[in-house]
Every structure is written in C-alpha cells, then in structure tokens.
Write a structure and sequence with these properties.
mainly alpha; Serine Threonine Protein Phosphatase 5, Tetratricopeptide repeat; 73% helix; elongated
C-alpha cells in the first residue's frame, strides 16, 4: 500500500487565500441587507449610476421615500436616459402622494417600454387614487385578464365602477346611457368591468331591461349565474317573445351543461323567431356539443 503525506509547509504553499468581496453594495442588496447598502453608499461622492439605483431601492424598501426619491434623482443626473432610475422615481413619487409627478414618470417609462407590467399597474393605482376611474378601470380589467392571480384587482374594479358610475349619475347620465357605455367596455374586451357596470345599474334601477340583459348575458362568466338567470327570467316574464333574453337564457343553460333546459329555451325562441340568427347558431352549437359528449 502506498502512503502519501504532505507537510504543513507544502500544504501552506499550495493554498491561495481568497477573501470574499462582501463589502459591496451589490452583495448587500442581493442579501436584502438594505440598511448595509445605505451605510455603504450614503454620502459617498464616487458612486456610479447603478449604485444610486441600489441606494434608491434600499431606502424605498426601508420605508424612507424622501431619501429614495433623492437617490433616484441623483442617479438621473448621472444617467438621464436610465429607464430603471426613472421607474424607481415614479414609484417614490407615488408613495409620497405626488400623483402628478408619478403619473408623468410612469407614462414616460411606458412610452419607452410599453410592456413593463409594474409601471402599468403603478399608473393604474395613481389614476385610482386621483379618482380618475374612467381611465383606470380599463387598465385594471387588462391586468385581471393578463395576470388573473394578481391580488386585489377585483376590489379595484368594483371600486372604480362605483366611483365612475356615481360620478356619471351626478352628471345626469341616464341608466340607458350607462348601459350603452357598459356594452362599449365589453366590446373593447373589458367584460369584467362591463358586468360590474350592469350590476351597479340594476341596483339603481332594478327594472332596467338593458341592464338586466347585460347581467344575464355576461354574468355567468364571472360567477353571477344565479343573478343572471333571475335577470333573464324576469325579462321573459314581462315579454315571453324577447329574442335576446331567450337566446341568452338558452346559452346560459347550455354553458352550464343543462341540455334539456337549453333545448327548451331554444325551441321557444325558434317558434317565435324561426329566422333568428342567434337561435340558429345555438342549434348548431348544441348539436356539436351533444356529439362531443356522446360516447
């Protein structure tokens, strides 16, 4: 058997001492030691643009928005074209309640980088806190569609709808005009906003036919199936030959898998309106789904 031994002198000669460069703003920031970043960088005259970015966000995360704002502004003096520093400044303005400045900064960032989600969200919040509900509502609807797991967006949609329609009511807009606007929102893809608008109008004017039809047509897609069904049935009690309400009720039952109820409503629709395009389309859709579910 062979034996190997290494003297301590040999071992020492082979070892290269390496000291980790922990005294670094980047390392402290990565470790989330924001206070250490501030201690390391605050007051230094030789900092780079990136250091100002780290310093700004460290102050931000420590809750000192005034110092965060100052750091981002100082960084922009070094690098005026930095979109990252401008982004940080926008959020600092927002947290300081400087809505006008925050809006301008967010819009500038989005003009250069339209897909920047956190800025889209930030601008929506600025508009919300400024009570500009008609502007922020479509933005929250878009966030909900693209980021369905984003927390609290439903709340902001509901509050924006209430704020917007309450203001319209003060301005003298009629429920009929509000219904037209709700369908316009739906046509632009903002269906969640539209259904909440229909629900709001029904609360103010429970018998408005357009609002009930809107709730009946869109409600089931957002968990309001029971309310939608009640709205459509009430319309049909008033006018059994209402083709839009009858088609919407047939669609509601079909989407819920209640084939017999859907077929019954469809037969009533086609009996009263044999040439109705919606009824014909529903006939084809029911037949297609029936074939797909038949073993």
């Amino acid at each position: 058997m062979l034996h190997f031994w290494i003297s301590s002198a040999m071992l020492a000669s082979e070892i290269i001492a390496v000291t980790p460069a922990v005294d670094s703003a980047e390392v402290y920031y990565t470790m989330r030691d924001y206070a250490a970043v501030v201690r390391y960088l605050d007051g230094r005259a030789d900092v780079r643009m990136h250091d100002k970015l780290l310093l700004g966000w460290s102050h931000y995360r420590l809750g000192d928005m005034a110092k965060a704002k100052r750091a981002f502004q100082d960084g922009l003096e070094i690098a005026p074209a930095s979109i990252e520093l401008l982004n940080g400044l926008a959020f600092a303005h927002y947290r300081l309640g400087e809505a006008k400045e925050a809006e301008a900064a967010f819009r500038e960032v989005l003009a250069r980088s339209p897909d920047r989600f956190e800025c889209q969200q930030g601008l929506a919040y600025v508009l919300f806190t400024s009570a500009r509900f008609e502007e922020c509502l479509p933005m929250f609807d878009t966030i909900l569609r693209t980021r369905p797991d984003e927390p609290n967006v439903d709340y902001y949609i509901l509050k924006s709808v209430d704020g917007m329609l309450s203001e319209w009511q003060k301005q003298g807009k009629t429920p009929g005009q509000m219904v037209e606007e709700a369908w316009r929102f739906a046509g632009l893809g903002h269906r969640r906003s539209a259904v909440e608008m229909f629900r709001w109008i029904v609360q103010v004017d429970p018998f408005h036919p357009g609002a009930r039809l809107g709730l009946g047509s869109l409600g089931p897609d957002f968990g309001y199936e029971k309310d939608a069904c009640s709205a459509l049935e009430s319309l049909l009690r008033e006018n059994p030959n209402d083709p839009e309400a009858r088609a919407a009720l047939a669609q509601l039952h079909m989407n819920a898998g209640r084939w017999k109820e859907a077929q019954k409503e469809l037969e009533r629709l086609m009996k009263a309106h044999p040439d109705d395009a919606r009824g014909q389309a529903l006939q084809r859709e029911i037949a297609r789904r029936a074939r797909e579910t038949t073993p």
